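Chain A, query sequence.
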Amino acid sequence: MGDGNNRWPGVHRRDAARLYRLALERAAEHAVYHAIADEGVPFREIAGVIGRRLNLPVVSISEAEVGAHFGSFAMFAQIDAPASSATTRQSLGWHPTEPALLDDLDSAAYFPQLSYAN
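Chain A, predicted structure.
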């Protein structure tokens, strides 16, 4: 965990939906497909966007601190899961066209202005 270099794959929901449709229409029996546009986005970059958008500091934490900080999410926060959709793209002709994970996450849609009642 510490340096946040563990990677997560990502795909926009509309790209994933198009892939599911293609798989239903054209898939070979028992085929396995991966809906992945971003093969490995570092966790620290995801946290960085969220922290910046929420105006919160983002700091590295040690492996010993992960459980206390993330609770039941700790197992997922530590995963290093780069993945590829190269075979899926080739066999179904699928190509993601929507924004990449960090670009999408950095949009105002995920961080509307919060108003607090006095």
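Residues 13-26 form the longest helix (14 residues). The chain has one domain: 7-108.
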